[in-house]
Write a structure and sequence with these properties.
Number of helices: 8
CATH topology of the largest domain: Lipocalin
Radius of gyration: 25 Å
Largest sheet: 6 strands, antiparallel, barrel
Distance between the termini: 15 Å
Strand content: 35-45%
Strand order of the largest sheet: 3-5-8-9-11-14
Helix content: 10-25%
Structural class: alpha+beta
Shape: globular
Oligomer: single chain
Number of strands: 27
CATH architecture of the largest domain: Beta Barrel
């Protein structure tokens, strides 16, 4: 996208700066516009609980930034959703009988430089991370993977000891060991909040940028745009030839300060490959491209748009290849976790120096929360500890190698990065 500007998430005025004396104009965001929010404080998972957060992505309207990244929002828990069956089953097999729920939140207040604005929205949990194609690290070797594994463990240990939020981490660790525990909306949880009603905001008055000519796209070699999917996609449900529609969320401006792609520009494409997930840990694959660009007031432009990045659920562990294909990968500790549990089960058969074997039995009972440890300590029976250890080992093998693999799932409003070239 050489020479072209993807509008940054900033305002002409710093967030919170007084705009007294500055001429403003009212702009209206339509309903269904998604707000991407990250919570800043841990809250109780109960109806009426107050939830504080900030926007993680700016919100544009055509060429104007309406809400800046970092704007503070506040809402309340209005309802619950049951977790999916797989998550529930895994929790039960881990000894957690808590009736797990996901919160539904109505974010109803947002702080802007021109004052607080009331909004109406419905938000659900959407913990994602952006994954981009990187040719330099797309195929790491065994040594590179080992170094990365060690580096991640060192960084995790350092963060656990010194990074902010130690109280939350300790509480989450404790809850993870209990068979029944309270539920929380942890600080850092991500939500997507769809506006259920149009919302009006005052922004500094500016002259709209003129539209660039269609020749600007023809003359460009490659332009990268950020968009959100208007259609849901899943490798388990999609078929070759299915239509895909996305909407540009950040305007693109030429060096001549002309608007090449305003917010709201639509991209139309097609699913080229959909490979469903299958048993024995075989994960799904998905590939789609964009072939047409629809700008209001103009005829369709034929383009070639290839996926360069996508925002996927962390549990999917997705990667993007050089042709824009997306696949879900096995868990990073797919081999390590079963090996460690198997080793712990084996060492549980030996005795400590004092002949009791109590310490090793307690270690071997790892994998079923505090229940297994209490039982192993109370009974001091090697067979009980080995039984718990064998159960944990079998469970780890089943979920990593025998059960159905991960599907590639992109719900509506998923953020994607698309590299566009003129066809």
């Amino acid at each position: 996208m050489a020479g072209y500007i993807l509008m940054p998430g900033i305002l002409p005025l710093a967030y919170g700066q007084s705009v007294r004396g500055t001429e403003t104009q009212a702009v209206t965001l339509p309903s269904d516009v998604p707000l991407r929010i990250r919570t800043t404080k841990t809250a109780h998972l109960k109806k009426g609980a107050v939830v504080d957060g900030v926007l993680t992505e700016p919100v544009y309207l055509r060429d104007r930034i309406v809400l800046p990244e970092g704007a503070a929002v506040r809402g309340v828990v209005t309802d619950y959703q049951n977790v999916d069956k797989t998550t529930r089953a895994q929790a039960l097999l881990n000894g957690d009988v808590t009736p797990l729920h996901q919160p539904v939140i109505s974010f109803d207040l947002i702080h802007t430089p021109n004052g607080d604005v009331s909004i109406h929205s419905r938000a659900v949990v959407r913990d994602t991370e952006v994954v981009r194609f990187d040719a330099a690290t797309s195929h790491p070797g065994v040594i590179q993977r080992a170094k990365a594994f060690v580096r991640d463990r060192i960084n995790s240990a350092r963060d656990a000891a010194f990074a902010p939020g130690k109280k939350d981490r300790a509480l989450r660790l404790l809850y993870g060991q209990l068979p029944y525990h309270p539920q929380r909306i942890w600080s850092g949880t991500q939500f997507v909040a769809d506006l259920t009603e149009a919302a009006t905001f005052n922004v500094p008055a500016e002259t709209p940028l003129p539209l660039a000519s269609s020749q600007a796209l023809t003359d460009s070699s490659q332009i990268q745009v950020t968009a959100r999917l208007l259609t849901s996609l899943s490798s388990d449900a999609a078929h070759n030839g299915d239509n895909v529609v996305a909407m540009v969320t950040k305007p693109v401006i030429t060096p001549q300060h002309e608007l090449l792609f305003p917010e709201g520009t639509e991209l139309h494409g097609t699913v080229l490959r959909a490979k469903p997930s299958k048993s024995f840990g075989r994960n799904g694959q998905l590939r789609f491209t964009f072939s047409d660009l629809q700008l209001a007031g103009r005829p369709e432009e034929h383009v070639h748009g290839m996926l360069a990045g996508a925002s996927g659920e962390k549990s999917q562990n997705i990667t993007v290849d050089q042709e824009g294909g997306i696949k879900s990968n096995p868990d990073k500790n797919r081999f390590v976790a079963p090996a460690v549990l198997g080793l712990l089960t084996f060492v549980g058969q030996t005795e400590d120096r004092d002949g009791s074997g109590l310490g090793r039995q307690t270690v071997a009972s790892n994998g079923f929360g505090i229940i297994a440890r209490v039982v192993a300590l109370t009974l001091n029976d090697r067979r009980v500890a080995i039984g718990f250890g064998s159960y944990s080992f079998a469970k780890s093998v089943y979920f990593r190698f025998l059960t159905r693999g991960h599907a590639v799932v992109f719900p509506k409003d998923t953020l994607v990065e698309v590299s566009l070239t003129n066809r």
